Amino acid sequence: GCELFMASISRSAARKLSLEADLNRALDRGELRLHYQPRLATQDLQVETVEALLRWQHPQRGMVPPDEFIPLAEQSGLIVGIGDWVLAEACAQAARWRAARVGWKVAVNVSGVQFRDGTLATRVSRALAAAGIEASSLELEFTEGALIENSSRVTQAVSALKELGVNIALDDFGTGYSSLSYLRRFPIDTLKIDRMFVRDINATSGGQAPLVDAIMAMARSLSLTTVAEGVETDLQWHFLRARGASQVQGFLFSRPLPAEELALWHSQWIHADAGRITGAA
Ligand code: C2E
Ligand code: MG
Ligand code: MG
């Protein structure tokens, strides 16, 4: 026999293994945090919803990005416990905002793995009850990948969530299998247009983006709320406003921030920056 050894593969496999072992303890050690990124109404640039994004502050490696550790958490099944923690924490934060008379909804990303045992709706309603908030304060973001399993279990789970009164968003729309049948099969409220399409709106394309136009037209005829992700430039924001996107989200407005920093950002935003950006339009 003959075996091929590549040091780089072995290094990345070793990193994966050691990260997975550390992830196992990250929750108990309090190394996970939520950052929050605003989704603003296109009409007046007021915050409507805030998306919770998971962060892992690793004691030795520093900040590990979710794109690296969430796939590990999914493979190992740890995502179920982590997902429960995210839900509880995000709902508790929504309750704090409510107590402070801030009416922001909170959006939580949910992995397909969290569907598998059929208890997601129960877990979500438990998190809502523990925090004492209404289901209408919560939106769940699923990717197309989470819905691809064409099982009655997934359909039932989404319907049960919808019955609770939770909003359902399809995240990264257009990057996965993009089967239009999802839009028929699932009671989706919101389409999040992936930032790949938003990136197409740039000066070199003459500020054109036919796919964004097409997605917007489809969403409008289905009465879906649209959120454009990854808005980084004035050109993109002006284009999206002209096309009637319901909400915008991106670094042009704010990066994901810890809750306390988001409050500081917001007080500046309402006093100065929102006016500057809308005024410049
Ligand atoms: P996502 O849900 O599509 O989140 C949007 C990602 O785009 C975030 O990356 C955000 O920081 C980034 N982003 C926002 N605005 C801009 C922009 O203007 N430009 C650019 N270049 N990027 C922008 P992040 O926080 O690294 O999260 C990556 C992905 O990890 C998320 O994509 C989501 O799929 C997943 N994720 C994050 N938190 C959770 C969680 O609690 N549970 C699960 N299951 N997945 C999560
Ligand atoms: Mg998301
Ligand atoms: Mg997305």
Short description:
The protein is an alpha/beta fold and 281 residues long. Helices cover 48% and strands 19% of the residues. It is globular, with a radius of gyration of 20 Å.
Radius of gyration: 20 Å
Given helix and strand content, the structural type is: alpha/beta
Distance between the termini: 67 Å
Order of strands, main sheet, comes to: 1-2-4-5-6-7-8-9
The count of helical stretches stands at 11
Overall average pLDDT: 91
In this entry the ligands are:
ligand C2E, magnesium ion
Specify the biggest β-sheet.
8 strands, mixed, barrel
- Beta-strand share of residues: 15-25%
Instruction: List the secondary-structure elements in sequence, H or E.
Output: HEEEHHEHEHHEHEHHEHEH
Q: Low-confidence stretches at least 5 residues in length (pLDDT < 50)?
A: none
Shape type? globular
The total beta strand count reads 9
What share of residues is helical? 40-55%
Give a verbal description of the structure.
This protein has eleven helices and nine strands. The protein has an eight-stranded mixed β-barrel. Helix 1 packs across helix 2. 36% of the residues are buried. The structure holds ligand C2E and magnesium ion (2 copies). One magnesium ion binds next to loops.
List keywords for this structure.
alpha/beta, binds ligand C2E, eight-stranded mixed β-barrel, 281 residues, globular, binds magnesium ion
List the topology elements.
Elements: H1 7-26, E1 32-41, E2 47-58, E3 62-64, H2 66-76, H3 79-99, E4 105-109, H4 120-131, E5 138-143, H5 144-147, H6 152-164, E6 167-173, H7 181-185, E7 190-193, H8 195-199, H9 210-221, E8 225-228, H10 234-242, E9 247-248, H11 259-280
Helix pairs in contact: 1-2, 3-4, 4-6
This protein binds ligand C2E and magnesium ion (2 copies).
